[in-house]
Amino acid sequence: MELWGREAELARLDDVLTSLADGLSRVLVLRGEAGIGKTALLDHAAAASDDSTTVVRVAGVESEADFPWAALHRMLIPHLDRRLRLPTAQRDALAVACGLADGPAADRYLVSLATLGLLAEVAAAGPVLCCVDDAQWLDADSMTALAFVARRVHAEGLGIVFTVRTGTPFTALDGLPTLDLEGLGTAAAGQLLRSVVPGALDPRVADQIVRATGGNPLALTDLGQELTADQFRGGRQLPEPLPVGPRLEAHYRTQIDALPTDTQSWLLLAAAEPSGHYGRIADAAAALGLVPGAAEAAEASRLVSITTEVRFRHPLVRSAIYGGAIPGDRRAAHRALASATTGSSDVDRRAWHLAAATLGPDAAVADQLEHCAERAAARGGYAARVSFLARAAELTADDRERARRAVMAAQAAVTSGAPLQARALLDALAPAWLDDVDRGRALIARAYAGITLGDGSVADASAICLAAAEAFGDAEPDLTRLALFRAVQWAINAEHLIRGTTPADVAAAVLAHPYSEPLTKPRDLLAVGFATLAVHGYARGAPILQRGVAALLAPGIPDEELLEAWVVATTACTIRRDYASAHAVLRRAIDIARRTGALWELDSALFTHSMAHTELGRLTVAEQLVADGCQIRSALGATAEQWDMYQHPELLAWRATAEHLSVRVRGVGQASVPLGHGSVVRIAEYAEAILALGTGHPAEARALLRHLIDDDVFCVHTRVLPDLIEASVRSGDRELAERALEMLRSRADVAATPWIHGLLLRSRALLADGGGAEELYRGAVERLAETEARLDVARARLLYGEWLRREKRRRDARDQLRTALELLEEIGAGAFAERARRELAATGETAQRGPEPARSALTPQEATIAALARDGATNAEIAAQLFLSASTVDYHLRKVFRKLGVTSRRRLRQVYR
């Protein structure tokens, strides 16, 4: 097809090719209706690439969309030998996904990382252009991998051009650079039409055709070859309506109906076989007794081209053939194809053909489909597993067995990131069909579908998990205990927004379960620990939680157990102020998530780790972790608006220097309310209180912090007690301060960590009279200095200096305040640094502001790369950690060097701290 009137589109494609030649990467999505010229533009891009460019092509096939990793395998076949250069976990995952090896189910994001690495390896030898046609019909697993790559490329010399048909519910590429294709303008459309009309063309007829087609190039081309010479000259009236736009399919159907019967049957076989394998189609045709010339007549019709595989002129041709056939003929075609699909590697395809050939329930075919589902899951193809199980359920006569398969399909849908599909499968089930175990599984699947959809179901999750635990009962004790553990986890997450139950009810259910003694499994210890804490108090619950954390950190604990329990374990560490164990748990969770490609888990762990570093005063490290999380969310396809709630409110508050930023901090919490994330709301409220303390509004801080501890059943807000004591003392509420001090004292006696004891000494000093305060302040500074909590050391010195100034000991006060200011400026705690500067000025000393740190010149991504390089990581190691290619890391590192005025990593270590 000539590219008439596509100058702007060609210029965009040329920009892509120019970038590749310069060693940079570019991505472009061409979006438009059927026949608008998307494939012709892809053909142009491939043909215009120079000889040094490797062109990789793949096209989506609608009937292949249920086969896991099918498109990715077809695309990467010529280059799979390079997988041996990838990190072991990525190499193995890609081999399993592509059916080259057996092994654990391939995580889709680990395969995505492997795809990025493999294409970057190919691009190391010269530019690579990936042309992905009809992306809306790629299988979901392949599409996930390619969308991931598209969001991570930058400096590899790798171009990816996708085409997507409008009018389909397809969102995988949202947010990527997109070019919407419209119909040709009047002049260009007329020029194209005249080029394909063999004889005279009346201008009025041409205008009529151009208007009717909306400038659609395929419609113009087809009409130029289908209408008669008399119609073009205006001697005969044009058909009304013209077969264009939505009627293109009907137009093709007319052509098909004019072919011999055997040719139509042969075309139906070709349309029903997604691989396009000519030999298989020929065998199926023989089984149906079609005449040998049927294939030749199909090719002569210009609807297909035939080599070793059959290619349709346009996807609409395939749709017209398959959609226009009567159901009985479609089933016969699939039956014949099943008989011709006999290879050992084609078991799943054969089962799918048999399923399509089956009209009513068929136990044998349903069993085959379930086996296919398990094979798909073994390759990490959970989207395919959903399709196989859902169809197996449709072909199952027995209600209980059908329900079991539908629940399994719903669970797979949740795992594959299709929560709406999971809900639809569960909504179609009658409660009477479910036994207790399947009812429990269905409840868990429904809870996680709702959480994934972000519709507030976090608030309901604990109640749903309790119902699931009751359903599992004694029949599935391990599932019962897992459901109870999840009920505790979601109760901690939902906090005051919890619906359908209460934290007390959750705790009672956990303690009523007959756990076998002694408890050894980390998740059971953690669940019982929090339940004991809620019912019997901190003194009895905290030691059990400590045992749970120790069990989770024991050598040899399986990865899946740690990923299952790390969130609750980190909370258990926080309420004891046990930063060493918290960081150990988080480091292991992050390492496992990176290694296995569990990106959602990794994003959550990085966010939590950034909070832990913030508490210690490592704000720059926290920001780097937040930047890491942004990289991952970008790779997952999230927009900034979707992830607004994942800003770090405490980090914002510590960095802030102005009161008005409390509006932004509060906004993070408000964004979390509809989702049911009560814990994030509380974190935002704590952040507001921190900002209020820093800017001199203790009464406001007291109100916010008192609110946090009023209903703190699980004691998760133990960490706010020192701040509440300070805010209460400063605002004149001594009674509340003493009550909070007693709570802190009782918990410090149990937790017995240096951090919590240092905070207790600091808090006691605030309430002490006379000379006793000084001893306590000194003790607090000394005890906190034994820990890594630099922020609390700085605040202890600030409070001590403020007390000394009020005692009119200005010289002594200056020493403490000067040290506090230096620490707070080094940390970057803006509001508290200003508070220290004001106090120092009140002693008669003026403090100059320090220079801006080197990090301020860098973007968050550059700062993260700089920190990793400073600490000795190689480009390859940085790339693996940030889900980038080594080429992109090198590109950003060169920018870092230029901005900081250094030429080596050794020099980087000297200037970037």
TrEMBL record:
Protein's GO biological process: regulation of DNA-templated transcription
PANTHER family: TESTICULAR SOLUBLE ADENYLYL CYCLASE, TRANSCRIPTIONAL ACTIVATOR DOMAIN
Gene Ontology MF, one: adenylate cyclase activity
SMART domains associated with the record: HTH_LUXR
Organism in which the protein naturally occurs: Cryptosporangium aurantiacum
CDD domains: LuxR_C_like
Entry-linked Pfam families: AAA_16 (PF13191), GerE (PF00196)
Domain HTH luxR-type: 851-913
Any GO CC annotation of this UniProt entry: cytoplasm
Keywords: ATP-binding, Nucleotide-binding
Official protein name in the record: Regulatory protein, luxR family
UniProt keyword ATP-binding present: yes
